Structure formats: structure tokens, C-alpha cells
């Protein structure tokens, strides 16, 4: 088995990986060996122009061309696409999509999903491939899906397949901790992992289960060898290794489907969406008209009293003149959703204080949907921060005004912001807010584009 995980549309190494997969598959088949190619989710990421322009269907074409046999999905497939886009993402897929814990709200399984599939090898040995993905119920339900407990779904599958299959392979987009738990409690031969971008150079044996994962971004390809006794039909030896993509340069062709998709996607993204009358400058550590506009757009979009966003989500300035879909995507590539929170005044004050710290502004964030460099300065709409004038206390606050009125510690304020602030890594205070509402499938760049288009239209009128 050859496996990839968490590519996140980083196609830098995709050409050699794809050609390597195809040639290895041909070689093994020619030698009379059984071979499977698998992806464990988050293959697409809408930060990339191909995934954005094609709504992920370009990723499926790449998986088809490389000869993948089974895949499961990650949260980037599951909750960054509109329901209709995900429901048709795999219309042209040449492989089954294995997800045991994804359903429509009425409990029926999507037509393009299988919980597992059993492969009967020429030797009569039966392999069961099962897929599960990480559970984000709030996000999936908002998009019109039902996501269930992956471990409970796995139990149901195992109850069915263990009577039929000799060897069980789990495609798990759950993360390392969950994989180790499953290995300790269930009879599974191999778990191919993803989600937490962990890296096992030669696998990790937990109980008698081999855990495998090869980091992220196509930096490595995983290779697992199973030796199965033809008489007992049990795996008697399990070997794993990680193959660096830097070693696969000899498998690259000059031009292939990736180049075609890139050109087609760039053409799609040249669609003009508005005409900008003046430059909008970006500065991660200063208040700018551009950042203020984004904070204002979040306030309006969410119907909130105030807007709050970090300047680091704007990656570039936007010059005056024609603005295309590609321009908006380039400066705001994050798969981040707008979010409305109800926050007590005292909690809001804590967040404002923490956001002013240099270590927060300079924080390099990985994941959480953020595709930028650093957090940058927190920008507000409807908030005036009056710093303390006592020498040495510049990070403390004398007063916070909300729309001109002093902040009330026990009052609930509605805040239009971004979902990454609610995940606990940067602002744990926001994980326990009394009420939060995510706007989906709209992304932050949709909010920005809507504001810019309305501004452009009002100027013309």
C-alpha cells in the first residue's frame, strides 16, 4: 500500500508523486503482487487556485490520474465546501470514497459514500478497507450534513467486516491520539492516519496494530508492506517506511494534467468582480483603511454590534483598478468562516488585552484555517481602546468604549469575527462563550468581496 495524507493542495511535489504511484502500481501488478494506493483526506485546500476555481474537482482529477484506489475525506473536503459542491465533488471519481460516519440529516448515506469495501485478492484473502473522518458536528450540521461519532461508526463496521475479512485497514482522518486509542481497543491490522500531520518514519506499533502517517503537504509518500500467510490468512509481518518526495525527481514529466488544471484555473479566476477606485494598503502591525474595512464588513455581515479581526488575514495590498476573483483569493486565501459571538464585556476586555501583546501580534499560526504568516494587529469596528498612561503600563487599558459607551463587564456584546478565534488555541476565553453562530459556506473572502462590490456599486451610482 502507498498512501498520502494532508496534501492541502500543496502541489509542489505532486508531479513526481503521481508518476511514482502509477509506475509502482504497474511494477507490482507486473510482478504478481497486490497493490493499493490510498489518500487519507485533506487532499484539497481552497488556498490553492486549482481547488478554489474547480471547487475541488481538479483534486479529484489528479487522484484519478495517479491511480488511487480508495480515499477518505478530511475536514477541508467536508466543511470548506458548500453542500452541493461536496455532494458532487466525486461525480467523476474513479475510486470509492470511504466514510463510515457521514450522512444526510435524515440518516441516509450519500450515494457517493461507502462505509467500507472488501477486496478479495487472487489468493482468496479478503481485505477490508474502512474510512472515518474527524467529527465537527456544529460545522457539518450548518452545511446540511450529519456527522457521527467516528469510533462508534467504526465499531459498527468492524462488527460486519470481521466476519467477512481476514485483514482490516483503517483510513483514519482522526489524528494521532484517536488512532492510538483505536489501536489499543480494536482489532485492526493497519491504521493509515492523517489530520494532525504526525510523522512516523517507519510506522508505530501499538498492540498489534501498525500506525502510519507521513506528515503533510506531499513531503513524503507512505509505503506499507503486509506479508499475509496464505493458510491462516493473517498478517504475519508489517513493515512501513516514509519515502521523501525529494527522492522522486526522476519520475517527473515535463507537462501533465497539473499544468493544464493550473492554466484553466487561472483563467477562471481572471473574472473581474469590481473596479477599485483607490489603493487599499496592507500592514500587519498598523491600523489601515483596508483592515478597518474588513472589520466593518464582519460587523455588518454578522449583524453584530462590533467587528473584530486580525490584520494578518490580509496577505497583500489591493491596488486600484480592476479586481478579479483571483485577486480576492490571493490576498485572503483562508478557509475561514465569519462567526457571530455573544461575549460578556469582561471576556471581551481580556481578549483585547491579550491581542495587544507583542507576542500575540507576532504569533506564527499554523492551521485553524489560517493561511497567512503572523496574526498581526487586532482591528476593531465599534471599539475604542484607551491605553493606560502610567509609564511602563502601555499594554494595560484605561478604558474600552463600545460604540462610544464604556464597556460593561457583565453585559453581553455581539461580535462579528472569524471562526479561528473560537478554537481555543489563541483565545481560550472564546471557547466558552454563551452563544456562537458560524456563517457557512461563506468564507472570509466572500465577506470582503461583498463589501468591496457594494462600495464599488455605491460609488458608481
**CATH fold assignment of the largest domain:** Purple Acid Phosphatase, chain A, domain 2
Number of domains: 2
Q: What CATH architecture label of the largest domain applies?
A: 4-Layer Sandwich
**Percent helix:** 25-40%
Mind summarizing the main beta sheet? 6 strands, mixed
Cα-atom Rg, whole angstroms?
24 Å
- CATH homologous superfamily label of the largest domain: Metallo-dependent phosphatases
SS class = alpha/beta
What does this structure look like?
The chain folds into 2 domains: 2-265, Metallo-dependent phosphatases (Purple Acid Phosphatase, chain A, domain 2); 271-460, 5'-Nucleotidase, C-terminal domain (5'-nucleotidase,  domain 2, Alpha-Beta Complex). The N and C termini lie far apart (61 Å). The strands form 7 sheets. The protein has a 6-stranded mixed beta sheet, with helices on one face. By secondary structure, the chain is α/β, with parallel strands linked by helices. It has helices at 14-30, 49-54, 57-66, 75-79, 83-87, 137-142, 150-161, 176-185, 257-268, 289-302, 325-331, 345-355, 358-361, 444-460; strands at 2-4, 37-39, 70-71, 97-98, 102-103, 113-114, 116-120, 126-133, 146-147, 167-173, 190-193, 204-206, 209-212, 220-228, 235-244, 272-276, 306-310, 321-324, 338-344, 378-381, 383-387, 397-402, 405-406, 412-418, 435-438. It is built from 14 helices and 25 strands. Strand 12 and strand 13 form a beta hairpin. The longest helix has 17 residues, at 14-30.
List the helices and strands and how they pair.
Layout lengths: L1 E3 L9 H17 L6 E3 L9 H6 L2 H10 L3 E2 L3 H5 L3 H5 L9 E2 L3 E2 L9 E2 L1 E5 L5 E8 L3 H6 L3 E2 L2 H12 L5 E7 L2 H10 L4 E4 L10 E3 L2 E4 L7 E9 L6 E10 L12 H12 L3 E5 L12 H14 L3 E5 L10 E4 H7 L6 E7 H11 L2 H4 L16 E4 L1 E5 L9 E6 L2 E2 L5 E7 L16 E4 L5 H17 L1
Parallel strand pairs: 1-2, 2-3, 4-6, 8-10, 10-11, 11-13, 17-24
Antiparallel strand pairs: 1-14, 5-9, 7-8, 12-13, 14-15, 16-18, 17-20, 19-24, 19-25, 21-22, 22-23
Helix pairs in contact: 1-3, 10-14
Amino acid at each position: 500500500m502507498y498512501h498520502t495524507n494532508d496534501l492541502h493542495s500543496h502541489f509542489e511535489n505532486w508531479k513526481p508523486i503521481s508518476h511514482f504511484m502509477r509506475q509502482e502500481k504497474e511494477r507490482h501488478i507486473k510482478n504478481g503482487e497486490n497493490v493499493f494506493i490510498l489518500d487519507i483526506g485533506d487532499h484539497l485546500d481552497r488556498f490553492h487556485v486549482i481547488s478554489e476555481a474547480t471547487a475541488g474537482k481538479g483534486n479529484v482529477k489528479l487522484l484519478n490520474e495517479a491511480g488511487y484506489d480508495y480515499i477518505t475525506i478530511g475536514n477541508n473536503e467536508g466543511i470548506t465546501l458548500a453542500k452541493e459542491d461536496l455532494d458532487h465533488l466525486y461525480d467523476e471519481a474513479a475510486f470509492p470514497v470511504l466514510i463510515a460516519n457521514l450522512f444526510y440529516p435524515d440518516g441516509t448515506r450519500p450515494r457517493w459514500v461507502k462505509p467500507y469495501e472488501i477486496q478479495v485478492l487472487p489468493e482468496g484473502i479478503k481485505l477490508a478497507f474502512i474510512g472515518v473522518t474527524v467529527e465537527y458536528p456544529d460545522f457539518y450540521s450548518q452545511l446540511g450534513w450529519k456527522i457521527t461519532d467516528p469510533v462508534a461508526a467504526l465499531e459498527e463496521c468492524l462488527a460486519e467486516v470481521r466476519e467477512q475479512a481476514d485483514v482490516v485497514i483503517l483510513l483514519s482522518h482522526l489524528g494521532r491520539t484517536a488512532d492510538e486509542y483505536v489501536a489499543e481497543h480494536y482489532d485492526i491490522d493497519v491504521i493509515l492516519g492523517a489530520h494532525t500531520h504526525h510523522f512516523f518514519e517507519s510506522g508505530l506499533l501499538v498492540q498489534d496494530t501498525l500506525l502510519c502517517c507521513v506528515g503533510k503537504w506531499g513531503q513524503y509518500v507512505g509505503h506499507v508492506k503486509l506479508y499475509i500467510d496464505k493458510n491462516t490468512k493473517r498478517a504475519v509481518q508489517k513493515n512501513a517506511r516514509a519515502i521523501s518526495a525529494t527522492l522522486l525527481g526522476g519520475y517527473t514529466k515535463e507537462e501533465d494534467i497539473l499544468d493544464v488544471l493550473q492554466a484553466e484555473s487561472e483563467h477562471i479566476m481572471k473574472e473581474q468582480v469590481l473596479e477599485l477606485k483607490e489603493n487599499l494598503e496592507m500592514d500587519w502591525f498598523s491600523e489601515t483603511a483596508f483592515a478597518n474595512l474588513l472589520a466593518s464588513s464582519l460587523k455588518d455581515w454578522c449583524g453584530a454590534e462590533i467587528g473584530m479581526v486580525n490584520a494578518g488575514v490580509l496577505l497583500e495590498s489591493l491596488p486600484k483598478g480592476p479586481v478579479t476573483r483571483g485577486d480576492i483569493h490571493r490576498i485572503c486565501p483562508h478557509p475561514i468562516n465569519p462567526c457571530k459571538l455573544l461575549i460578556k464585556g469582561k471576556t471581551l476586555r481580556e481578549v483585547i488585552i491579550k491581542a495587544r501583546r507583542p507576542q500575540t501580534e507576532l504569533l506564527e499560526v499554523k492551521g485553524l484555517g489560517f493561511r497567512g504568516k503572523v496574526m498581526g494587529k487586532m482591528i476593531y469596528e465599534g471599539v475604542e481602546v484607551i491605553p493606560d498612561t502610567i509609564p511602563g503600563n502601555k499594554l494595560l487599558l484605561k478604558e474600552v468604549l463600545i460604540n462610544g459607551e464604556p464597556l460593561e463587564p457583565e453585559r453581553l456584546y455581539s461580535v462579528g469575527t472569524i471562526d479561528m478565534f473560537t478554537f481555543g488555541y489563541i483565545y481560550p476565553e472564546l471557547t466558552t462563550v454563551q452563544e456562537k453562530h458560524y456563517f457557512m459556506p461563506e468564507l472570509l473572502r466572500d465577506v470582503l468581496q461583498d463589501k468591496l462590490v457594494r462600495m464599488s456599486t455605491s460609488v458608481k451610482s
